[in-house]
Amino acid sequence: MASGSWSEGELVRRCREGRPEAWREMIRRFTPLAYRLSARMLGAGAEAEDAVQEAFASVHRSFGTFDDQRSLAAWISSIAYHAALRRVGRAARPGRAGADPEAAGELRDEAEPGPEQRAAAREAGAILDEALGRLAVQDRALLALRYREGLSDSEVAEAVGMPVGTVKTRLFRAREKLREWLGPALGE
Q: Is residue 93's pLDDT more than 60?
């Protein structure tokens, strides 16, 4: 069976056996998730990349404590979230909170056929990124985990170490702030 087709359980088992190809596969599968989350919190670039490296070093060190009943994506998200949060605390520099709109555009999955659609998407992305940049770092991370990564509310809560009710409340309030800020731009 090719490494790319391993189930999560098989991947965990092979990592526990210390197989290098399993570790490479884990990093290949989960680096995009960890990077998108880190970039949402730190801005795209070297700082986010460093947070991802720090997160995967921590994953490797603490893999023996991983509970097979947990989601691997939620566990790695938790480690990446805390690595990025530590960097936010260390840096605490103004202007670092929002993602770079050009770099954030590279993270989008949409295929945009024409130049007008690309220009409109860039403009909309820049407006959204500016609004997201106004949110608290933790709220941006919660939104990214929930809507970009598709984790459930309970998986997000597990990843960030908050009660599910707190996650739901913060997501609701963040969406309301975005609606308020983006309303004028959307003609509402």
A: no
Could you tell me the residue range of the domain that residue 137 belongs to? 3-182
The domain that holds 20 is classified in CATH as: 1.10.10.10
- Rounded average pLDDT over 168-188: 84
Specify the pLDDT at position 3.
62
What type of residue is 175? R
Confirm if 129 and 99 have CB atoms less than 8 A apart.
yes
CA dist., res. 168 & res. 159, Å (int): 14
Nearest to 14 by CA among 77, 5, 159, 149: 5
Query: Per the structure, how many domains does the chain have?
Result: 1
**Tokens matching residue 139:** 């709220």
Establish if 58 belongs to a structural domain. yes
Per-residue pLDDT tens over the stretch 45-71: 888 899 999 999 999 888 888 888 888
pLDDT of residue 109: 42
In a domain, 171, yes or no: yes
CB 41 within 8 A of CB 88: yes
188 domain residue, yes or no: no
What phi-psi label fits residue 95: left (phi over 0), alpha (psi between -120 and 50 degrees) or beta? left
Which residues contact residue 71 at a Cβ distance below 8 angstroms, ignoring those fewer than 6 apart?
8, 151, 155, 158
Q: So what's the pLDDT on residue 104?
A: 40
Please report whether residue 187 resides in a domain: no
